[in-house]
Structure prediction request, 281 residues.
Amino acid sequence: MDRPPVPLDRPTGLCYGLPHARFSTGHQAPRDRPRGGGPQGCCSLSCLEGKSAYPTALRDAARSQGSPHGDSMAKILKVDPTQLEQILDAATRLILGGKVVAVPTDTLYGLAADPFNLAAVSEIGRIKRRTVDKPLPLLVDSVDQAADVSQDPPPLFYTLAEKFWPGALTLVVPAARRLPFKVTGNTGKIGLRWPKAPIVVALVAACGRPLIGTSANLTDQPPCTTADEVALQIGDAVSLIIDGGPTPAHVPSTVIEVTGDRGRLIRPGGVPESDLKEYLG
Prediction:
């Protein structure tokens, strides 16, 4: 299938001193990826400064609910440009060992885990206190990696990826057969997103595979935009929290299901519906 051309120099936004990612034009995403890659680019952590609007009453409620995971709190590693390799190494070891790590994305804080480790997939459900029949979205570091875990995505998938990735758009497409049913929630579909969050992209590359990227909060509790909020809700249930400061957005990604030559809006979010109108049925 012919794919629309993709730009080679689209920046990923906030960079934490990490290499900027690029769109890849090859057909297959390599299984073993080197750490980082692409041209060097750096910006200050001051771009993440901001204050949380997390409601005090809800924060107290989340804390008072307790957790079935025990009282041990997660280690919190604050993003420091001089310690990035150590942070990525620690997070990669945990994820490839079947653990769950909380990470800052360009939308909200998320839970990162290995989608091919069924114990890790089940742990996501326990942490969030939700049933396992709900699909889990995946974060990728290239269009090719997204195509590698999907089943014959239509041309519209590549059109939307070219226009809105990296960014706050999740594309739902048929899932590749190698993805566990637990990840797709037995739907046969998978939500994919290339985030504009270089530390997450670097973590995906370091792990050499897409990562689960569901929101880091308890079911029916507000999503988290700071590491402190994550710690208050689920700090005793995850292995590590990477503190990248407040997230640049306080809304989740927009979710579009791609079928044929039209898309269907499933959830509004970071990409306005007006920007997607020409692609929706």
